[in-house]
Amino acid sequence: MKILALQFRYLGDAVLMTPALRALADHFPSSELHVVVAAEVAPLLEHSPWLRRVWAVPRARGKANILKTWPLIRALRGQRFDRSVDFSGNDRGAITSLLCGARQRLGVRRTGGFLGQRLCYTETIAWERGGHESGPNLQLISKWGIAAPAVPRLELRADPARAAEAERLLPEPAILCHLATSQAKKDWPLGHWAELYRQSSALGLPLVFSTGITAREQRLLEEFRTLAPKARTLPVLPDLRTFLAVLARARLVVCGCTGPLHFAAGLGVPTIALFGPTSAAMWAPPGEGHRAIQAPACTCSGDTGVCLSPTPCMEKISPEAVFPLVLQAWGCISHLRVGGGFY
């Protein structure tokens, strides 16, 4: 049997899909499991041992280009899939499900979307929102009699071809602190990061700081260097594959609610997550080895990327609250780290 999974959302959403992909592979052990994702997402999944193939779709966010996508659609149709499951829950996923031609096509029954969306599937299920964000994916495949695991586990693999480069960039065991998130309102203040560095370096903890590739994120790193000039920072990494390989070498990752948080958890690296405008209960990595701090309720609008509150919630997470977790985690991992968890 050949099964096709589709996901056209963001990087973090692809990682949160992995418990459902693993459940599919375990439930149908003799099947071929393929997955279709946006091209920028493909490096996250291309080394998963239980996936037969990752199909990368070229796209511009918010714009569908059927001329660029059609050769891929034709190739997928030629695979003659028996089943498909659309984890996207959007118009793009519905249309692609139909065009790929699987005999059984499972998708989400939802309000909104284009008029014929439900006709793209042969069977649907209504999502019940609430709980952890990996839950809806597992709920969807329950339509096929697949039981959800007691604790969902995020699973990624780094590209082994990037291991030597990652070792050059991060040669010794380290605590990787990722300064930036996709939205300024989710960033932990740079002064707090500098204080965490001061407290940690006083006890010899090896902190290394990284950031993303956007201009805003790079400016944050430059500003941080003025606050902590002796802190070790990573250069701009050339691509996601190299970044994943570096993350896999970290002993602990500290960051806000951002893609690298889920990447690290999927690679088996313990995490400490700092949450403000978003919910730790919904987005924090599940399982042992992962800790989260939730700031008090935020008063800023959810529609803006910048916090407009005079007292941003992320400022209320103090370095004094984070440092004991770092110290505890480093003590555990340095002596008893097994498979990315605390034991």
Output the keywords:
6-stranded parallel β-sheet; alpha/beta; Rossmann fold; 11 helices
Gist of the model:
The protein has about 350 residues and is of the alpha/beta class.
Q: What report would you give on this structure?
A:
The chain has 343 residues and is of the alpha/beta class. It has two domains: 143 residues, 3-Layer(aba) Sandwich (Rossmann fold); 177 residues, Glycogen Phosphorylase B (Rossmann fold, 3-Layer(aba) Sandwich). Strands 3-2-1-4-5-6 form a six-stranded parallel beta sheet, sandwiched between helices. Strands 9-8-7-10-11-12 form a six-stranded parallel beta sheet, sandwiched between helices. Strand 11, helix 10 and strand 12 form a beta-alpha-beta unit. Helix 1 runs parallel beside helix 9. The longest helix has 18 residues. The C terminus is likely disordered.
User: What's the helical proportion of residues?
Assistant: 25-40%
Q: Over the alpha carbons, how many angstroms does the gyration radius reach?
A: 21 Å
Query: What count of domains describes the coordinates?
Result: 2
Strand content: 15-25%
- Number of beta-strand segments: 12
CATH superfamily of the largest domain: Glycogen Phosphorylase B
State the end-to-end CA separation: 39 Å
Alpha-beta content class: alpha/beta
Please state how the strands of the largest beta sheet are arranged side by side: 3-2-1-4-5-6
Q: What is the CATH third-level topology name of the largest domain?
A: Rossmann fold
Form type? globular
- By CATH reckoning, the class of the largest domain would read Alpha Beta
Helix-strand pattern: EHEEHEHEEHHEHEHEHEHEHEH
Instruction: Write down the overall mean pLDDT.
Output: 90
CATH architecture of the largest domain: 3-Layer(aba) Sandwich
Low-confidence stretches: 336-343
Major beta-sheet overview:
6 strands, parallel
